[in-house]
C-alpha cells in the first residue's frame, strides 16, 4: 500500500467525509448521535470562516464508486485550532479514521505526522484530542507516539451542555 | 468598610440629601448604615460585555489567579502581549467576555473587572458547530452574586447566536465547588458518563511525531 495520497479536503469530498464520520461513530457505537448533514459540512468547512479543516487519504480505484480522479477516499482527519491561555495556540484533532481494510499500512501514522507538522508550522504548542477509555487499540497507538492521558495524569474531566440546556441557560441565570 | 464615608454616601445616594437634613457628612444616622448593609448584600450591580484590547491586562491578572487556584502557576507561558496578539487580530484564536462592577464596588485592590470567560468556536463531527469555554473565573470576593452564572449564560447565548448546538469545557476532578456548580446547571460529565479521556501530544513529542518518529 504505497500508493495512497494525503491531501487537503475539497468541497466535493464532503459526501465521503460524512460517510467516514458515520463509520467512525459506528466503530464507537454512537452511530445514532451523528446528526450532521452534507449541507452542514459544506457550509461549515468551506465558507469564509471555516469551523474545521480536513485532510483525506485516497487510494487509486478501478471501482465505479471512485471519484473523478479515479481514486476513493479511505481515511480522513478533521481538526481545528483552539487556544489555551496558559500555553497559547493548540491544534485539536476532532476525528481521525482509516477504513478497516486499509489499516496496518502506515496510513494513520502518515496522517498523524502531517497533522503534527501542521501544528509545528503554525506554532501550536500542543495537539489535543479525546479517546474513549474502552478504545484500547487507539490509546496504545497514541501513547506509542508520545501522547499523555490528561484525564488520568492531571484529573481533567470533559463536560458538555447540549442544546436544550444551552437554551435554558442562555435565557438568563436563575436568582 | 467604615473608613470610607464617601463610598457610603455614594452607594446609598444620600450625599445630595445631607445638607438638607443639616448633618455633616462624616456623621450619618443608624438608618443610613442599615441601608448601606442592605445595599451591600442585595444583588450587586455588574455588567457583562465583550473584552477589548485594554482588558487584556486584567484578563492576564485574573488568568494567573485562576492558574494559582488550579495549582499550575508554573505552567503559564502566555503573557498579556500574547493575549493581545492572539485575541484581537482579524481571525482571533479566542473571544473573551468580562464582568465589571461599578467603581463603588471595586475590589480591595481597586479592580472593577472582577470576572471573565474565554471561549472559541469548535466543531463536533456528530453535531456540527460547537463552542468551547476555555476559562470561567470570578474573583473570590465577588462570588455568590450570580456573576459566574451570568458569564456562562452569555457564552451560551453567543454560542447559540453563532449556530452552535453544544458547549464543551473541562474541569479538574478535585475542583468540587466547580463540579457541583456545573452539574447544577444541567451539564454532563462525559469523562465519567462516556469514558472520554483528554489526550495531549506536546513539545518534544509533537516535534518527534512531525518528523515521523514512533
UniProtKB/TrEMBL annotation, chain A:
Recorded superkingdom: Eukaryota
PROSITE patterns assigned to the protein according to its UniProt record, in alphabetical order: GNAT (PS51186)
One Gene Ontology term of the molecular function aspect: spermidine binding
UniProtKB keywords: Acyltransferase, Cytoplasm, Transferase
rRNA-binding recorded as keyword: no
Chain ranges of the N-acetyltransferase domain: 4-168
Gene3D superfamilies: 3.40.630.30
Swiss-Prot/TrEMBL catalytic activity: spermine + acetyl-CoA = N(1)-acetylspermine + CoA + H(+); spermidine + acetyl-CoA = N(1)-acetylspermidine + CoA + H(+); an alkane-alpha,omega-diamine + acetyl-CoA = an N-acetylalkane-alpha,omega-diamine + CoA + H(+)
CDD domains, sorted: NAT_SF (cd04301)
One BP term from GO: putrescine catabolic process
EC number(s) per entry: 2.3.1.57
Subcellular location(s) of the protein: Cytoplasm
InterPro entries for this protein: Acyl_CoA_acyltransferase, Diverse_Substrate_AcTransf, GNAT_dom
Keyword Ligase applies: no
Metabolic or biological pathway, per its Swiss-Prot or TrEMBL entry: Amine and polyamine degradation; putrescine degradation; N-acetylputrescine from putrescine: step 1/1
Pfam families assigned to the protein according to its UniProt record, in alphabetical order: Acetyltransf_1
Major localisation: cytoplasm
Enzyme class: transferase
One GO CC annotation: cytoplasm
Family, per entry: Belongs to the acetyltransferase family.
Subunit: Homodimer.
Protein name stated in the entry: Diamine acetyltransferase 1
Classification of source organism: Eukaryota, Metazoa, Chordata, Craniata, Vertebrata
Recorded name of the encoding gene: SAT1
Automatic annotation (TrEMBL), chain B:
Span of domain N-acetyltransferase: 46-204
Record key words, sorted: Acyltransferase, Coiled coil, Transferase
GO terms, biological process: polyamine metabolic process
Keyword set includes Acyltransferase: yes
Coiled-coil parts of chain: 59-86
Keyword Transferase attributed: yes
Single annotated GO MF: N-acetyltransferase activity
Record-linked Pfam families: Acetyltransf_1
Family matches, as InterPro entries: Acyl_CoA_acyltransferase (IPR016181), Diverse_Substrate_AcTransf (IPR051016), GNAT_dom (IPR000182)
Superkingdom: Eukaryota
PANTHER family: DIAMINE N-ACETYLTRANSFERASE (PTHR10545), DIAMINE N-ACETYLTRANSFERASE 2-RELATED (PTHR10545:SF66)
Membership in a protein family: Belongs to the acetyltransferase family.
Name of the protein in its database record: N-acetyltransferase domain-containing protein
Organism annotation: Esox lucius (Northern pike)
Taxonomic lineage from the root: Eukaryota, Metazoa, Chordata, Craniata, Vertebrata
Amino acid at each position: 500500500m504505497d500508493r495512497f495520497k494525503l491531501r487537503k479536503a475539497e468541497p466535493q469530498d464532503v459526501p465521503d467525509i460524512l460517510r467516514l464520520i458515520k463509520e467512525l461513530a459506528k466503530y464507537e457505537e454512537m452511530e445514532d448521535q451523528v446528526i450532521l448533514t452534507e449541507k452542514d459540512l459544506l457550509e461549515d468547512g468551506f465558507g469564509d470562516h471555516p469551523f474545521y479543516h480536513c485532510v483525506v487519504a485516497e487510494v487509486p480505484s478501478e471501482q465505479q464508486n471512485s471519484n473523478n480522479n479515479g481514486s476513493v477516499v479511505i481515511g480522513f482527519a478533521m481538526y481545528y485550532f483552539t487556544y489555551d491561555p496558559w500555553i497559547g495556540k493548540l491544534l485539536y484533532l476532532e476525528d481521525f479514521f482509516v477504513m478497516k481494510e486499509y489499516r496496518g499500512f502506515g496510513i494513520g501514522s502518515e496522517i498523524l505526522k502531517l497533522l503534527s507538522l501542521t501544528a509545528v508550522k503554525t506554532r501550536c504548542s500542543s495537539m489535543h484530542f479525546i479517546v474513549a477509555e474502552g478504545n484500547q487499540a487507539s490509546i496504545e497507538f497514541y501513547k506509542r507516539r508520545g501522547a499523555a492521558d490528561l484525564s488520568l495524569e492531571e484529573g481533567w474531566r470533559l463536560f458538555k451542555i447540549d442544546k436544550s440546556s444551552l437554551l435554558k441557560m442562555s435565557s438568563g441565570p436563575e436568582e | 468598610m467604615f473608613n470610607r464615608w464617601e463610598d457610603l454616601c455614594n452607594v446609598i445616594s444620600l450625599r445630595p440629601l445631607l445638607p438638607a437634613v443639616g448633618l455633616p457628612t462624616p456623621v450619618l444616622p443608624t438608618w443610613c448604615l442599615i441601608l448601606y448593609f442592605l445595599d451591600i448584600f442585595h444583588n450587586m450591580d455588574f455588567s457583562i460585555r465583550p473584552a477589548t484590547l485594554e482588558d487584556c491586562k486584567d484578563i492576564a491578572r485574573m488568568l494567573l489567579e485562576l492558574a494559582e487556584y488550579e495549582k499550575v502557576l508554573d505552567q503559564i507561558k502566555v503573557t498579556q502581549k500574547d493575549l493581545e496578539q492572539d485575541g484581537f487580530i482579524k481571525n482571533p484564536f479566542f473571544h473573551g467576555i468580562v464582568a465589571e462592577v461599578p467603581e463603588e464596588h471595586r475590589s480591595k485592590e481597586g479592580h472593577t473587572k472582577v470576572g471573565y470567560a474565554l471561549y472559541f468556536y469548535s466543531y463536533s463531527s456528530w453535531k456540527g458547530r460547537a463552542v468551547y469555554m476555555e476559562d470561567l473565573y470570578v474573583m473570590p470576593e465577588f462570588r455568590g452574586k450570580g456573576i459566574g452564572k451570568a458569564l456562562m449564560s452569555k457564552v451560551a447565548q453567543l454560542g447559540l447566536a453563532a449556530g452552535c448546538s453544544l458547549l464543551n469545557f473541562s474541569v479538574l476532578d478535585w475542583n468540587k465547588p466547580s463540579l457541583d456548580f456545573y452539574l447544577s446547571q444541567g451539564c454532563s460529565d462525559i469523562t465519567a458518563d462516556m469514558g472520554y479521556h483528554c489526550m495531549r501530544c506536546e513539545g518534544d513529542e509533537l516535534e518527534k511525531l512531525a518528523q515521523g518518529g514512533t
